[in-house]
Write a structure and sequence with these properties.
Layout (H helix, E strand, L loop, with lengths): L1 H15 L9 E7 L11 E4 L2 E9 L2 E4 L2 H7 L3 H17 L4 E6 L5 E6 L13 H9 L4 E7 L2 E6 L3 H15 L10 E5 L2 E4 L2
Antiparallel strand pairs: 1-3, 2-3, 3-4, 5-6, 6-8, 7-8, 7-9, 9-10
Length: 196
């Protein structure tokens, strides 16, 4: 009788416990001001109305990592960010995110990151400058993330080139789902800055 009560008590406890989601398979995710604020961890502000958060990859579908899940995991934001960036780097290295070298109508070389919902998040790759400087031959990179599935990386542009290139990006990338921004960011010395 005592053993039966003990087993029933244990079974009841197990049923009443929520299954805690393990924080793994995490990636950085670029979002806009319009993204639902509830249950979202805002990590960094990129500028141009864009922010960085974290999501689980659920076989191609994404789900927010909530503040409660982060607290329950015992991880810090910094640890979570390191894990997410590491997973992103692996996805790019395994060519889950495609990188293709093109030229604009004005013969400005650029690298297109495409074919993945992680394309825009690739702006956060810590070795982006080292990866692309040899192809673009520039001391800094100009980056545009028009929507979730595309990131275009150019060499440093002067004001006239920037305006023409921005128009080029709008012509090629307008109308895509999950729009982000047609504005440019500059990456120099591993720092991302919004260009006005």
């Amino acid at each position: 009788m005592k053993q039966t009560l003990l087993i029933m008590g244990l079974f009841s406890t197990l049923l009443s416990c929520k299954v805690k989601k393990e924080i793994k398979n995490i990636y950085p995710y670029i979002i806009t001001d319009a993204y639902p604020k509830e249950q979202t961890i805002f990590v960094d502000t990129l500028g141009h109305g864009l922010y960085v958060t974290f999501v689980y990859d659920e076989k191609g579908l994404v789900e927010n990592v909530t503040p409660k899940e982060l607290q329950e995991s015992g991880m810090t934001i910094s640890q979570l960010k390191d894990s997410a960036i590491s997973n992103l780097a692996k996805a790019v290295k395994s060519q889950q995110v495609k990188m293709v070298l093109y030229k604009t109508n004005d013969s400005i070389p650029f690298v297109l990151f495409t074919d993945s919902w992680l394309s825009a998040s690739s702006i956060l790759l810590p070795d982006l400058e080292e990866k692309l400087n040899q192809y673009l031959g520039s001391e800094s990179l100009f980056v545009c993330i028009p929507h979730r599935d595309a990131m275009l990386v150019f060499p440093k542009l002067d004001q006239e080139q920037k305006l023409k290139t921005q128009q080029f990006v709008k012509e090629k990338e307008s109308g895509a789902p999950k729009p982000l921004s047609f504005d440019f960011f500059e990456i120099k010395d591993h720092k991302i800055a919004a260009i006005e």
